[in-house]
Amino acid sequence: MFRFIAIRLASALPTLLCILVITFLLTRLTPGDKVLADLEDQSTLDLGSRFTYDEIAATKGLDKPYFYFSIIPASIPSESFHLPYSERLLSQKLFDAGLQWEHADQWVKDLSYLRRLLREKYTPERTASRLDYLIVTTRPIIEEIQNALQSIQEESVPEEIKGQVEMLLNNLDNQLTNSRVIRDFIPRLVWHGSENQLHRWLGAAFSLDFGRSKVDGLPVVKKVFEALRWTLSINLPAIFLAYLFTIPIGLYSGWKQGRFEIVISFLSYIIYAMPIFWMATILVVFFTTREYGAWTDIFPAPSILSTISGDTYMQALMNNLKYFIIPIFVISSHLWAYLTRLLHNSVVEEKSRTYVWMAKSKGLPSSVILWKHIFRNASFPLITAFASVFPLTIAGSLVVEVICTIPGMGRLMYDSIFVEDWNVVLFIVLLSSIMTILGLLISDILYRIVNPRLRS
User: Fold this and answer.
1) How many structural domains does the chain have?
2) What is the distance between the alpha carbons of residues 325 and 408, in angstroms, rounded to a whole number?
3) The dihedral of CA 99, 105, 106, 107: what is its sign?
């Protein structure tokens, strides 16, 4: 068994690595400029302070290439990766807009020189700040640069600055008409080694450093694990109760023909057909208040879970236990209906097998046949379902947590998406993927325990 687990864990490592790489790509594809977001969040910093855009980019490692190698046009020199981050971004964008690389590189230098002139010889900061934005933004376009330069030209700026702006505008018109050179279409591979963003991100991921939340500045891991305890508080009991009631009810409903089977089948169909958001909403609206009658005030109304500073997890859990009744009931009942149908159908199929008739012919009691023989073979669908149910303990039930105001993983992901807190969202996705892998591993282990033929 230990050898099997070791082999399965080793085979899961490539999958885990692929998940980490995909998560890294998603972090880089999220909208917005991460450096500008830091500058905006910290009111004491601005583009003119010592904490410049390039310094923050270097601190975050964003100034390095994405991967261990890059494929670039042969006309772009390898030294371009050593340029300051803001200059490299603007040069690349100008190159994509149609300028040859040497012209794009010179353009960045000319804009930087113009910015220095504005700061040295012109008092109003807004003009220089506008040009600062063009230099650091990740999405500058030719029209934006032309508009910015023309607006500077219309202001009462020194003649030296007007001359510089006029030269830039003329050069831009001329350089945009130049055609691409052959080397712009020839690919070239540049090797970066370990000096890249992916290598740094993987190192941080294995040390559980996923950055900070955009909302409150807390470390992502700490924020997610605080939400995780509330998700576990409702999902672990819900899954336990679902399996606890599924096994006996599903077995006997499939074994015994008659009224019991009809009632259980009808009940499971009705519950499973109910949308989980509808069931949770009905329970919250109609059964947490006396508005519809004294008898409807059954459950406590949803509320923000309260904790007292210094409380342990168990103390906080006991203080808020009453708020878990509805979410646990909704999740467990919906899961029970699904699992009961699986087990019922499996038992109906198994009880027609030859080994069941042979066991009956030997005079074995029905309870022994059902629990020792049929249940062992009919439990495979439950084990398969566990692989998909297990990640629920981490990802949480988003709908139930939102409706019942449970600050768990599902609610945290929901809120983080709306405020574009992608560090939190992607860490939850990564955690859920890892739990899916572990769920599949546990399912494989349970298969080998239940079926001795797989142990050989």
Assistant:
1) 2
2) 15
3) positive
